[in-house]
Amino acid sequence: MREKIIIILPFKESLNPKIAGAVSIYVTDSVKNSFYKNKIKIISSDRANKKIFRNKNYILNFCETNKRKKFDIIEIHNRPEYVKYIKKYFPKTKIVLTFHNDPLTLRGSEKLQERENLLKDCNKIIFISRWIQNRFFKAFVNSNYINTDIIYHGVRKLKNTSKRSRIRYRNLA
How far, in Å, CA of 41 to CA of 62, rounded? Predict the structure, then answer.
């Protein structure tokens, strides 16, 4: 069976509203208002095996568990280090990476070469602010913004909330 869109939350982000972090709240709210809500599955560490206690084990467990499945899009939130594993296990799947924090402080995007590789490996990189986008492109000689977008938190189009989700996945389907 082919699943449409998988959203991978950072390790330790919970979908439980009592302990949810900013990223999981953002994702949950976005999915509720998405045109594609019936085609989206959110992955969190809520049900993860107790032996999984690190980011690497978390993403490798997801990859190994799902390696026979085909996905249209895998969206990763705030964990650029996951991209290399997703690219390896799901080479034909489109990858969307969303940055909620300063890319220069996150494993997998601290170095210029890592950020250049992310631009090459991801079909779309989304930032939640212009400042975060500027930090990502710091030290680039030629900044190519073509595969990047900014989607600000809390911004919704009042007349048609589903339009926001179509913007997020445009040119990917």
Answer: 13
Of residues 32 and 136, which shows the higher confidence score?
136
pTM for this prediction: 0.84
CATH of the domain at 33: 3.40.50.2000
Residue with tokens 């296990």: 89
Burial of 28 (0-12, 13-18, 19+ CB in 10 A): middle
Question: Torsions phi, psi of 157, nearest 5?
Answer: -80, 125
Is the pLDDT at 72 greater than 70, yes or no? yes
Cα(76)–Cα(42) distance, integer angstroms: 10
Structural domains of the chain, count: 1
Range of the domain at 149: 2-169
Mean pLDDT for 48-63 is 79
